[in-house]
């Protein structure tokens, strides 16, 4: 069976038809025909998006999200593959758990689910988990992370970086010096000082990133830095890259758009934990530096850090609230707003940072290919011309903790194709 | 005035002066043998205390009772809260009972802001975490005004653990609104890193500030802070930042010494200084009741005060 996508602007270019046969793009050109036709006139075609950083919460917190609901959200956000973080309950620190998550993803079928393995047993930061067993499992784990917690012990981090070289793995570090962030609630700065909330200083992120870059260089391994949030971190990563070290980095959509003053003054009131996230929202100067770094390639990837939480974990006083925001269904819109409409990135740049680069870093062979003959037909069709109010009730995620309520965002994912099969059509699950 | 009193920043200069003037008037009434006024009869004030603070709670309780309000004391200990009830559910319960004002003390900064989103009554912040304690700042300003007259241009030095002090935050905001010149004195570890953006001066040297002060306000310093390396030892803290007899002896005659309590005698303030005539510590407690009466009266729009004491 064949599908032809008519008149799509590939990476925002001139309209062209895309012919898909047996899950593979077989031709790109004019006046192509197939068994089925999808009208994509006026839409931008992007390679299927790949998220390096998703919390699907299953097993353990199925009240917040499941593989089924989270991957629906991913497909609706234009994603064809997501990396499921390891901080589940039980922790994804054995071949058994990563295979379970991988199989749940296969069964759901909305997008590919690539489990991330924990670096240390139980995320305890004390003993290495069986990284090799996870790598050799059916889930073929290549990204290892204790995300949510930092691998703060320098020796353990060194060993992890060295050990994963045997199977071309990468350690994705949640850079947070724990002693400098004990009880931390928000970015340490003028706002935290006024609000009397314990500060999360930029240096707690930057010190770990600097140390880990040096360690990765020393042992000749790959390091990936999760959710970079400060201007200082950008400088350190830029320096490490200038040395030719194999360091990559990601930024979240929310760190590209939102700032810490929302904690004090926002449409949803002061101290509203909808803005509580780790790492915290930073300052306008940090946002500007992150955008610039994403534009110039210092930061390789936009990753959502989609972190669902049930309502009761956010409808509390600030200090008691859970950290995190959902983001799969708004990521592309936020990137359009922060990067494309500001002229910092074109759609080819978006494809690089939301598809090609994350697939490369995660070693996902079947994702992150240009829309061209011979590529797996992982394609996202996006209408960049519309704009709408954010309606949290409309999302497929089980959770509602979006920080964009009360805002309008541009763009709409119209269709997503996973190996030629539509997972989303007309903006709805296919 | 706004509907709630959550931060001292909620008060304009006119609002603050109105509260202080109203408190003056109420203080005159409090000197009568019958202290009770009928102005808030039939109104309900809930004291919602998630932290132990007998002093502040009884001060608010006395204030509400002298205005004839019905007072409900809700202490989190031994209540449904200690069984895991959320702040929101507690708020909805109070709302269902028809609270006209909720006085809240909570260990989490910002809890009164959240509460204000869930109840219709006025919310009065009686201390939230390390954020603010606006009625303490009002009673402090009231006390200064009684001793020194107008606060315009008065030099107020606040000494101690500024970083963790809700009293300091509220005082800096209110005193700057009222035209006083505030200087914070503390070891650098006990100041927020962003203190340079506050409407006040900062010094690390108590001795250099004492000759330039009309008011010296000492803050409680918790001994546990030294375990987190905020300062090396109690003795060193006391030597560098304590108001001992020798330092107090060098103060000009009219200078007053304040402390919001509870004190660590011998730590941040010497017993002789706390008990000296320049100390306003006991007056502050008494003034707390009249100032809180003024706040409740103005927020709840009580009946006219006038005439009754003429």
UniProtKB/TrEMBL annotation, chain B:
Gene3D superfamilies linked to this entry: Aspartate/ornithine carbamoyltransferase
Source organism: Planobispora longispora
GO biological process, any: 'de novo' pyrimidine nucleobase biosynthetic process
GO cellular component entries: cytosol
Gene Ontology MF: a single term: aspartate carbamoyltransferase activity
Binding-site positions, L-aspartate: 83, 166, 220
Reactions listed under catalytic activity: carbamoyl phosphate + L-aspartate = N-carbamoyl-L-aspartate + phosphate + H(+)
Residues that, per the record, bind carbamoyl phosphate: 55-56, 105, 133, 136, 261-262
Official protein name in the record: Aspartate carbamoyltransferase
Source domain of life: Bacteria
Enzyme Commission number: 2.1.3.2
The protein's assembly and partners: Heterododecamer (2C3:3R2) of six catalytic PyrB chains organized as two trimers (C3), and six regulatory PyrI chains organized as three dimers (R2).
Location of the Aspartate/ornithine carbamoyltransferase Asp/Orn-binding domain: 153-299
EC top class, as a word: transferase
Location of the Aspartate/ornithine carbamoyltransferase carbamoyl-P binding domain: 3-145
One Pfam family, short name: OTCace_N
Function in brief: Catalyzes the condensation of carbamoyl phosphate and aspartate to form carbamoyl aspartate and inorganic phosphate, the committed step in the de novo pyrimidine nucleotide biosynthesis pathway.
Pathway info: Pyrimidine metabolism; UMP biosynthesis via de novo pathway; (S)-dihydroorotate from bicarbonate: step 2/3
Keywords: Pyrimidine biosynthesis, Transferase
Family under the similarity heading: Belongs to the aspartate/ornithine carbamoyltransferase superfamily. ATCase family.
């Amino acid at each position: 069976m064949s599908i032809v996508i008519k008149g799509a602007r590939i990476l925002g270019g001139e309209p062209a038809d895309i012919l898909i046969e047996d899950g593979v793009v077989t031709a790109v050109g004019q006046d192509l025909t197939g068994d089925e036709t999808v009208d994509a006139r006026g839409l931008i075609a992007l390679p299927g998006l790949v998220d390096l950083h998703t919390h699907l919460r299953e097993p353990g917190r199925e009240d917040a999200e499941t593989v089924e609901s989270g991957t629906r959200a991913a497909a609706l956000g234009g994603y064809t593959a997501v990396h499921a973080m390891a901080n589940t309950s039980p922790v994804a620190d054995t071949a058994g758990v990563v295979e379970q998550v991988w199989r749940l993803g296969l069964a759901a079928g909305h997008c590919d689910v690539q489990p991330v393995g924990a670096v240390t047993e139980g995320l305890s930061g004390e003993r290495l988990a069986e990284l090799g067993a996870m790598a050799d499992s059916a889930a073929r784990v290549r990204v290892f992370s204790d995300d949510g917690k930092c691998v703060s012990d320098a020796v353990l981090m060194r060993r992890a970086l060295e050990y994963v070289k045997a199977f071309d793995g990468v350690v994705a570090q949640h850079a947070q010096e724990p002693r400098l962030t004990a009880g931390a609630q928000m970015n340490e700065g003028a706002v935290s000082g006024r609000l009397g909330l314990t500060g999360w200083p930029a240096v707690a992120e930057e010190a770990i990133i600097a140390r880990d870059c040096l360690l990765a260089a020393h042992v000749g391994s790959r390091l990936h830095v999760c959710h970079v949030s400060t201007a200082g971190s950008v400088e350190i990563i830029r320096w490490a890259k200038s040395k030719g070290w194999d360091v990559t980095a990601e930024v979240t959509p929310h760190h590209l758009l939102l700032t810490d003053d929302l904690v004090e003054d926002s449409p949803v009131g002061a101290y509203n934990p909808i803005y509580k996230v780790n790492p915290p929202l930073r300052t306008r100067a940090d946002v500007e530096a992150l955008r610039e770094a994403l534009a110039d390639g210092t930061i390789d990837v936009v990753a959502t850090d989609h972190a669902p939480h049930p309502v009761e974990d956010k409808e509390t006083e600030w200090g008691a609230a859970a950290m995190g925001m959902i983001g799969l269904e708004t990521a592309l819109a936020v990137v359009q707003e922060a990067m494309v409409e500001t002229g910092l990135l074109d759609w080819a740049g978006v494809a690089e940072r939301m598809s090609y680069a994350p697939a490369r870093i995660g070693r996902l062979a079947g994702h992150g290919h240009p829309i061209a003959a011979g590529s797996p037909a992982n394609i996202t069709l996006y209408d960049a011309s519309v704009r709408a109010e954010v309606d949290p009730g409309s999302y497929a995620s089980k959770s509602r903790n979006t920080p964009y309520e009360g805002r309008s965002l541009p763009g709409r994912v119209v269709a997503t194709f996973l190996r030629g099969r539509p997972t989303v059509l007309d903006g709805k699950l296919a | 005035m706004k509907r709630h009193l959550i931060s001292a920043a909620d008060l304009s200069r006119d609002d603050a002066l109105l509260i202080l003037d109203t408190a003056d008037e109420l203080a005159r009434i409090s000197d009568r043998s019958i202290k009770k006024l009928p102005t808030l009869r039939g109104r309900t004030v809930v004291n919602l205390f998630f932290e132990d603070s007998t002093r502040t709670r009884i001060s608010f309780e006395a204030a509400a009772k002298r205005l004839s309000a019905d007072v409900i004391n809700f202490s989190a200990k031994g209540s449904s809260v200690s069984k895991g009830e959320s702040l929101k559910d507690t708020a909805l319960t109070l709302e269902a009972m028809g609270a006209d004002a909720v006085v809240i003390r909570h260990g989490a900064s910002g809890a009164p802001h959240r509460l204000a989103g869930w109840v219709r009554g006025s919310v009065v912040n009686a201390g939230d975490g390390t954020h603010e304690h606006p009625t303490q700042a009002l009673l402090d300003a009231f006390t200064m005004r009684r001793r020194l007259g107008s606060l315009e241009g008065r030099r107020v030095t606040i000494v101690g653990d500024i970083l963790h002090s809700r009293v300091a935050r509220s005082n800096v905001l209110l005193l700057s609104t009222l035209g006083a010149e505030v200087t914070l004195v503390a070891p650098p570890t006990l100041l927020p890193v962003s203190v340079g953006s506050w409407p006040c001066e900062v010094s690390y040297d108590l001795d250099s500030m004492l000759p330039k002060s009309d008011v010296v306000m000492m803050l409680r310093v918790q001994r546990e802070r030294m375990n987190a390396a905020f300062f090396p030892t109690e003795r060193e803290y006391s030597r560098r930042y304590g108001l001992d007899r020798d330092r107090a002896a060098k103060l000009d005659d009219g200078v007053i010494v304040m402390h919001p309590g509870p004190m660590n005698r011998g730590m941040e303030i010497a017993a002789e200084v706390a008990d000296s005539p320049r100390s306003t510590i006991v007056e502050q407690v008494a003034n707390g009741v009249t100032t809180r009466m003024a706040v409740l009266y103005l927020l709840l729009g009580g009946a006219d005060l006038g005439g009754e004491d003429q």
